[in-house]
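Write out this protein's structure.
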Amino acid sequence: MARKEDRRHLKGKAEFVGDIKLPGLWEAAFVRSPLAHATLGRITKPAGAEGRVFTAEDMTDLAPIRTVSTLPGYKLSDYPALARGKVRYVGECIAICIAPTRAEAEDLAEAVEVDLTPLPPVTDVVTALKDGAPLLHEDWGDNLFLTTEYDSDLSEAKAKATVVLEREFKTARQAMNPMEGKGVLAHWDHKADQLQVHTSTQVPHVIRTGIAECLGLDQTNVRVIAPDVGGGFGYKCVLQPEELSVSWVARKTDRPIRWTEDRREHLTAGANTREHSYKVTAYADDSGRLLGLDADIWVDVGAYSVWPFTACLEAAQAGGNLPGPYDLPAYACRTYSVATNKPAFTPYRGVARPGVCFVIELIMDAIARAVDRDPLEVRCLNLVQGSAMPYTNITGKFYDSGDYPAAAREAARMIDAAQFRERQRAAAAEGRFIGLGFASFTEQSAHGAKVFGSWGLSVVPGYEQATVKLNPSGAVDVLSGNHSFGQGLETTIAQVACEWLNVDISRVRVLMGDTGRTPNSFGAFASRGMVMAGGAVSKAAEELARRIRLHAAHLLQCEPDTVVLRDGVAWNDQASVSFAEIARTWYLRPDLLPDNVETTGLEVTEGYKPDIDTGVFTYATHAAIVEVDPDTGRTEILDYVIFEDCGRRVNPLILDGQSYGGAAQGIGTALFEESLYDGAGQPVTSTLADYIMPGPAELPHFRLGHSETLSPYSRHGIKGVGEGAAIAPAGAIVNAINNALAPIGVELSQVPATPHRVLSAIFAAQARKEAAQ
């Protein structure tokens, strides 16, 4: 089924924050810190502009973003909407300036004078953790938000291991680059006595809570509306400081105020992600069976905790997910969430799993080389077997269903791994270096209250609600507080309603993401949209179908269980009554209804969560064939296969689109994307000429395969799939590069695998070879 939302997007009729027009609208621009770490002194506003320039001193009634956690040892970091006392990263907001146009607001911002006294910056985890390092938050005494630890007994693994591998890995810091950056427009609606905030967000109901708390308003007096949103990826599921300052100014000035993020702001001051460092020791036997894993993980999370997920989500997720889809008997891991003078860390598609997948998959290939076995067979030996499902792994992840080795073997079949070695030898004879790499993963989707509660968060996602109603014309309205920002949710939840009510999708209208009109929702993140919102719509539509049959039975003078719904018509044998007639009777001709009619009507609101709170697990294996040019270090992807299982495929077209988009982002992680900072904490990748993203010329023709193992714990067996395809590409591609360059002795352990890094690895391998001679 084609996507409902595409028509308005393709015709330019969509409405993003930047498209909204309100009488008296002014635009905002921010004065941002040019230094990574400095004390903040006097701020001088241009003469005559006092009512158009606002600083933290003006906003004494605006509370900072305070993200709490009950995890032992967690440290609070107040994140002000506008800097107070000091600045902690380049791009931190210092003042907000408003004017009739964005250009005038930017000119005003340029005229604001800021007194900054430089402090020594902390730009990496090594510096941050040294004794005597400059402190971002002086009251902490160090630069650690939190440390966590998993500790099972490794003594047996160490005693039995005949293979012991020690490796270090790094993943680069990245920006998320949705097509539309952040954007917010706020104004006070005097009739509703509400602050109305149009914002580009994935989680409107959550953002309402955050804005109300920081502005000291009752939630009744805040309405958050998410219009069309041009991509989220996790970047738009946290409370942004700009949302607060724009909202405060709109209320203060009693005029609509809008700010939209430009690309340079995004690349320099927007939230960052992905920057991990690992030190891993793996213990295995002669067959390649992984017996134990010991790891230290450092995550450079920037200056502040984001609300509501904290700065510690990434490292905690990394520690919990490093074992991946493997049957690991023993595991010890320590994680460190380290504060640095960089923008705050935000959850990004996959949340830590691209990093841990990269690490565990490179470990698998290293074990295979050590025991001289095929990497695919070593994987299948270690993967959780289908016969073991459901399976609880060593960190407590409950894998609900599936056959992981079968997916790996199917990916190998699709890419013709059996014939690859012959192909590789033929290429070598021509002086070409080609390689094959695999990566397998699980994606925890739609995890609920118990999981989020265990992280100590103050806001804990739980039930999802939806409303489905038959409107007076006989068409169907679906209201969901969740949101669609490119992932097709508007279409897929409409499909679910169509399944129960048996109406054409053209007769289904979907309204999403408006806290003033839709039921409560925690929004779209953690691959929860289709499982949770789809489940809620399913329950509501099922009940609405029952009520429609009840009303039809009265009009047709038959029993309700004999009524069949088909194509927007209720049938009893050859007699029928249309949904329009049923709706007209309820709304306009109640005199035709019996005295004992059910008064619940033709509008149903239901709440839903899966039978378990621990999530339902999608899984997949990616396989890549690459060619590496040893003279330039350039990597070309020759073939790329994805074989995945996400339970029930509600809309295969949308599923494939999710896979293409996720894999493209994963290839960016593997080969191109890196947010770089110099020793002063200055971002040096501040434009898309410096921050390199993959385009059509760099992407392969993805080939997809699917199986359907239904989850026994969700309605219709659906599992989430939104993040999955972004997780595995780095592992698969770098394994393929290492396989291609094995004759030279190269083993890369860092992404992105840029030409410079590939060439450096080749030169280092050649130097080792010469030294050995």
